[in-house]
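Input (structure):
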């Protein structure tokens, strides 16, 4: 019995998948190769970025990496999204893809619930309870999945078929969910990472003055928040001038004031970022047949613009990986999280969250929510639950004053994600094929 099991396992290793018959499955070696090689490519390019940023080469210093990140975020990534999503999307497809943004929301909810449970067990240092929840709950649904799909589809032996269709469909599916991810990031994450009542995450530093704290002479120091007290008077004078004019003018002023209030309150400046604008434009233009033929088809008069975006978009993958590898050169830094909390975040994000995501996607498939016979669609949904912590959450953490701890988490999560992503990809490919 045992010998027969070993024999069957060895025969499966030797089988190259050609004689899979009606099962059509991949051999174990093929599955490992398909899953591990893209991760190996990602790791190689990140290592080159790490080498370029090291003190021995120093071609990518911190200022250079900042410029490279800015170039990727404001130009290369939007170009990739616009060209790939615009070519792939139609109004019918957008209606069929409705579960992608829902999956992003469910991923954040399930991840945050797991993060809350882990944080309740581990009990991180005082100001970092919500920080722990967020860094377990919010995964990277943009850059890393795009890199993984590009590396996977580049191989002609990939299980999804034609390399070009594989890349176009995968990029379109991932891009279609990014706008929801950005809203979650700059609303939910932004509020969750608010500083504690002490006003800073560096609670050991007792030399920081409190807002409105009394000086030695008994007077109170005016904080920046209390200085613009003249603003209401200016608003009153503006309202008096408006009332003295026509009623139409007063309405226009009210609309402007409401828009300015909403713009500030809803953090629209943070939400409306270049990749989101590119996604909205691509969906809007791609959903209208006339505009799609005018811009996105190869013989269209304006296709030169799309083609230019495609050329620029191809540079996104190597640039983001070089920048990501370079960012790891600083190491984990002086984090206050401690080994226990950092290990819990890594374990929660890379080990506990993906099974919950697998259950969500399989349930949606059984309920008929997913397009039939589209394995790339299902694969994208699955990897949305299996990615490391979002790099952009580190940018939000930096804004909120806990950038050092976020950098430490991102460093270790991305190191271990090389192995976890390979393992989950092998599992997903074996489930799908």
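Output (sequence):
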């Amino acid at each position: 019995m045992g010998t027969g099991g070993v024999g069957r396992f060895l025969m499966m290793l030797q089988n190259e998948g050609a004689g899979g018959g009606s099962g059509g499955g991949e051999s174990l070696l093929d599955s490992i190769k398909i899953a591990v090689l893209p991760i190996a490519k990602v790791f190689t390019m990140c290592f080159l970025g790490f080498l370029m940023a090291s003190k021995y080469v120093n071609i990518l210093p911190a200022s250079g990496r900042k410029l490279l990140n800015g170039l990727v975020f404001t130009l290369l990534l939007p170009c990739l999204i616009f060209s790939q999503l615009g070519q792939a999307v139609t109004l019918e497809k957008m209606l069929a893809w409705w579960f992608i943004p829902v999956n992003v929301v469910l991923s954040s909810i399930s991840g945050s619930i797991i993060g809350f449970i882990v944080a309740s067990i581990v009990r991180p240092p005082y100001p970092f309870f919500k920080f722990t929840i967020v860094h377990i709950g919010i995964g990277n649904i943009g850059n890393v999945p795009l890199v993984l799909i590009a590396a996977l589809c580049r191989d002609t032996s990939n299980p999804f078929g034609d390399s070009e269709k594989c890349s176009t469909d995968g990029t379109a599916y991932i891009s279609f969910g990014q706008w929801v991810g950005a809203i979650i990031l700059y609303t939910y994450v932004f509020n969750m990472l608010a500083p504690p009542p002490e006003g800073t995450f560096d609670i050991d530093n007792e030399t920081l003055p409190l807002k409105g704290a009394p000086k030695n002479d008994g007077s109170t120091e005016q904080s920046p928040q209390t200085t613009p007290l003249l603003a209401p008077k200016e608003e009153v004078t503006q309202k008096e001038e408006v009332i003295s004019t026509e009623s139409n003018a007063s309405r226009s002023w009210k609309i402007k004031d409401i828009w300015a209030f909403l713009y500030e309150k809803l953090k629209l400046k943070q939400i409306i970022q270049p990749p989101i604008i590119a996604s909205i434009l691509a969906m809007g233009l791609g959903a209208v047949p006339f505009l799609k033929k005018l811009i996105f088809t190869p013989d269209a008069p304006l296709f030169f613009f799309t083609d230019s975006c495609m050329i620029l978009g191809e540079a996104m993958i190597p640039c983001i990986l070089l920048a990501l590898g370079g960012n790891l050169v600083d190491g984990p830094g002086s984090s206050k999280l401690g080994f226990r909390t950092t290990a819990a975040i890594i374990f929660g994000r890379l080990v506990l969250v993906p099974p919950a995501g697998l259950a969500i996607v399989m349930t949606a498939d059984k309920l008929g929510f997913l397009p039939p016979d589209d394995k790339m669609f299902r694969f994208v949904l699955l990897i949305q639950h299996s990615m490391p912590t979002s790099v952009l959450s580190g940018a939000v953490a930096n804004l909120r004053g806990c950038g050092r701890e976020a950098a430490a988490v991102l460093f270790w999560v991305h190191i271990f994600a090389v192995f976890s992503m390979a393992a989950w990809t092998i599992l997903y490919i074996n489930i799908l094929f």
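Notes: The chain has 20 helices and no strands. The radius of gyration is 25 Å.
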